[in-house]
Structure prediction request, 149 residues.
Amino acid sequence: MPYPIPLPPVLPAPADAQRWWRAFPGDLDQAGAARRFTSALLAGCPELDEVLLAVDELVVNALRHTKSGQPGGTFTVEITRWDGAVAICVGDEGGPSEPAVAEAAEDAESGRGLRTVSLLASSWGWFGNDRSRTVAALFSAASLRGAAA
Prediction:
């Protein structure tokens, strides 16, 4: 399994790409609000289910593993869409560890989020530090056709 390469702060989207951004309170119930935000923006997108699953996994990770999930914390979701591609970015308030695909035991109740994202997206990565970090996933037309197969 390839390891993610940290992404540059700006994803390589064309100038005419559609881009939306929203901040959310750092409460676990806001994962549903982030999915609804994404769903409304990408209505009719054939890869919507895969993107929504990735948004959910990245938001839950931000809330469980970073300062975003502590009282008063926040996180952001950015959606960028252009011909044949969708990029999602979840910004958090940083934490003590770096995002990485982990091996989860068969009976583990968690630990598969980034593995799921890595299997659905054509690429994923992160940049930042212990005070602020962004985890992003890119869905291209080619990867979306493969996920649907």
In short: The first strand starts at residue 18 and ends at 25.
